[in-house]
Design brief:
This protein is 18% helix and 35% strand. With 184 residues, the chain is α+β, with helices and mostly antiparallel strands. Strands 1, 2, 6, 7, 9, 10 and 11 form a seven-stranded mixed beta sheet that branches. Strands 3-4-5-8 form a four-stranded antiparallel beta sheet. Strand 3 and strand 4 form a beta hairpin. The longest helix has 24 residues. It is globular, with a radius of gyration of 19 Å.
Length: 184
Amino acid sequence: MRENWRIKVSVLAGASALAFSALTAVPAVADEAVEDLREVQMPADVQIVEGLAPAAGADVPSLEPTADAPLAAAAAAKAAPANTCLGSTAAYGVTGCFQHNGDVVWAGDTKKDGMSAAVGVYTDYGRAAEVCVNKLGVNTWATCDKDYRETGNVRLRVLRYDGDTGKFYQPESWSGWIPVDGKY
């Protein structure tokens, strides 16, 4: 009897801790207002690349935030054309994705707040991290054309960037791992 009581208390304590961590660790979604942004320390060797405006007439992704569900992304990659943007990830003021055909990183700015959208790209094979910054203004996309190893995976990290100070800010969000060749 006493053992059942301990099990119940342990389960309740674990559930409470999980609920508390979910409430305090969840980043703000793209549409939430953020009163004060928190600075993010980036590794010293991160290269900052200024994104370019997409070519005229190019298929651009939607700036509307979407959930990064691995199963949905895998289905989209199998059924979509080669220029599909995968790993769509969003946080306050920024959305980003990866186009495997051409290894293009897309950075979309969705908030008029004087800051730029930033999409960090990390690999699973040790290449130095890079950040694609969109300085083109609100409701625009910028692209950074890269060349990643076809047998590798990339992971995206979206956050805000203040070009005047060179600092990055939360809230932020991470994508899952995205295969560079687009084949899940």
